[in-house]
Write a structure and sequence with these properties.
The protein has helices spanning 7-18, 24-30, 34-37, 56-68, 71-80, 109-131, 148-156, 175-182, 202-217, 223-226, 234-239, 264-291, 298-312, 330-342, 374-379, 399-418, 445-466, 477-492, 500-509; strands at 39-42, 45-48, 137-141, 166-170, 190-195, 227-231, 245-247, 317-323, 360-363, 386-393, 435-442. By secondary structure, it is an alpha/beta fold. The strands form two sheets. It has a six-stranded mixed β-sheet, sandwiched between helices. A five-stranded parallel β-sheet has the order 4-3-5-6-7, with helices on both faces. Helix 1 runs antiparallel to helix 4 (56-68), helix 12 packs across helix 17 (445-466) and helix 13 crosses helix 17 (445-466). It binds 6-O-phosphono-beta-D-fructofuranose. 6-O-phosphono-beta-D-fructofuranose binds at residues 143-146, 196-198, 201, 204, 254-255, 340, 473, 476. 6-O-phosphono-beta-D-fructofuranose binds next to loops.
Length: 510
């Protein structure tokens, strides 16, 4: 049943009205078990949800909503490999990429065997390249899901990266980006990875062609050694002369693909063992999502909280604050994950929705954000739920830095909640501002894998409740089509039939 037609939705609406006077400080005073009730352990991740605008009734009603909208049936359909991405008639099986070899019977046994065949080949190649000291620079050319995941993970796991290789990520069609990277490289010591699920994405194809031309102009001849393609479209890679290829499948969405061949730069950076740990961490979270009771299921609790905030308390954005500088690309990664998945305005039958879907995601690493936009989070007119991500143990020996960092993240969550009385007005903090606190023991391949799989599944949960298809992305197509037309017009100067604004801009840039 569509979520807004369920009894639980009506009950949540009534609850939200009565909830207007909810105050976190009072909630803690009134419920001695609140911190425990709203804490949740999951593989590699501890979550404190207690500083959120929820109470036990909210959670009970949200769980009823999950039941009445058939969340578990939808989840189980994904894990059975059904074509839940119905607008593209595809299964959704990024989780299969993390499934241990030989662990499934029936229809999924064959795709799982293929997954491991490709994984073994890819990890073997990654180890070969790691051992090849003549290759000093690896350049990943890809965009969106073929860039954000590997880039985020290579940065996050920099402490696990063996010395001797530099990793570069070129995504933008803006030639400044490619030119700046190429400027410092030599053809005979560079390996280009052309990462594109479709191998048709104009930005990636343009950068790949320019990289090939640069390689040849530098005297490079051995394309097979210096170029590899990561794609579902091996034929298209061959067409531009790339023969070393690692494939994946149409049931892996771009923004869910860092576990596939798209993760090759990550495997090269942290090695086969490290990549295996990343997959194992994600798999443990898959198991938790598939099997833990809904009331103790972290992705479910987070996804339901997202629905509560978006549809009942009208909080339209979520700020991500990783208190670890190596996690600095996590907000960008999560933007695509959430907003490309759940930024939809129609239900699964194509009917316009009367309720909001994806929140706006944004963020920067703490403590930097504190000295930039946290002012608005503490004293602005809008309530923005914050999601802190902290790591208990550092990998450096600057203990005083880490204590200070942890003190800041805990103090921020506290300050947002507690506020501060001041009669003067300008120095008054209302407090009662919500936040979620995610804590990892250490930042390792396994904990990163679990953290990212957690985020994937929480996006699944809210998308399932909203009754949308979280696995297509038709909204990016129109811009691609129009850019082709405008490109031809920039070359020709033809502005006929254009609106006055577009015609004037075109004339200006020519
Ligand atoms: O334009 C959106 C998109 O299709 C994303 O979903 C995807 O991650 C990105 O483009 C890159 O696509 P590809 O890997 O096919 O080049």
């Amino acid at each position: 049943m569509r979520c807004d037609r369920t009894p639980a939705w009506q009950a949540l609406q009534a609850h939200a009205t009565a909830f207007k006077s909810f105050d976190l400080r009072q909630a803690f005073a009134a419920d001695a078990g609140r911190a425990v009730q709203f804490s949740q352990s999951a593989p590699q991740v501890f979550a404190d949800l207690s500083k959120n605008h929820t109470d036990r009734t909210t959670e009970a009603l949200l769980l009823a909503l999950a039941e009445q909208t058939g969340l578990t049936a939808h989840r189980d359909a994904m894990f059975r490999g059904e074509h839940i991405n119905h607008t593209e008639d595809r299964a959704v099986m990024h989780w299969l990429l993390r499934q241990p070899a030989g662990s499934l019977q029936g229809a999924l046994a064959a795709p799982l065997a293929q997954v491991h065949e490709t994984l073994d080949a890819m990890l073997h190649y990654a180890e070969q390249v790691r051992a090849d000291s003549a290759i000093t620079d690896v350049v990943n050319i890809g965009i969106g899901g073929s860039d954000l995941g590997p880039q985020m993970a290579v940065l996050a796991l920099q402490d696990f990266v063996a010395p001797g290789k530099r990793f570069h990520f070129v995504s933008n069609v803006d030639g400044h980006e490619l030119a700046a990277v190429l400027k410092n490289l030599k053809a005979n010591s560079t390996l280009f990875l052309i990462a594109s699920k479709t191998f048709t994405t104009i930005e990636t194809m343009t950068n790949a062609r320019s990289a090939l031309a640069w390689f040849k102009a530098q005297g490079g001849v051995d394309v097979a050694r210096h170029f590899a393609a990561l794609t579902t479209n091996v034929a298209a890679a061959a067409e531009i002369g790339i023969r070393t290829t690692f494939g994946f499948w149409d049931w892996v969405g771009g923004r869910y693909s860092m576990w596939s061949a798209i993760g090759l730069p990550v495997a090269m950076a942290i090695g086969a063992q490290g990549f295996g740990d990343l997959l194992a961490g994600a798999h443990a979270m898959d198991q938790h999502f598939e099997h833990a009771p809904l009331a103790q299921n972290l992705p479910v609790r987070l996804g339901l909280l997202d629905v509560w905030y978006r549809n009942f308390l009208n909080y339209t954005s979520r700020s991500i604050a990783p208190y670890h500088s190596a996690l600095r690309r996590v907000p960008a990664y999560l933007q695509q994950l959430e907003m490309e998945s759940n930024g939809k305005r129609v239900d699964r039958n194509g009917q316009a929705l009367p309720y909001g879907t994806s929140p706006v995601l944004w963020g920067e690493p703490g403590t930097n954000g504190q000295h930039a936009y946290f002012q608005m989070l503490h004293q602005g007119t809008d309530v923005v739920p914050l999601e802190f991500i902290a790591v208990k143990k550092p990998t450096h020996s600057l203990a005083d830095h880490h204590e200070l960092l942890l003190a800041n993240v805990i103090a921020q969550a506290q300050a947002l909640m507690l506020g501060k009385e001041d009669a003067g007005g300008h120095k008054h903090f209302t407090g009662n501002r919500p936040s979620t606190f995610l804590l990892l023991d250490e930042l390792t391949p396994a904990s990163l894998g679990a953290l990212i799989a957690l985020q994937e599944h929480r996006v699944f949960v809210s998308g399932a409740i909203w009754g949308i298809n979280s696995f297509d992305q038709w909204g990016v197509e129109l811009g691609k089509v129009l850019a082709k037309d405008i490109h031809a017009r920039i070359v020709s100067g033809d502005t006929s039939g254009l609106d006055a604004s577009t015609a004037a801009l075109l004339a200006r840039v020519r």
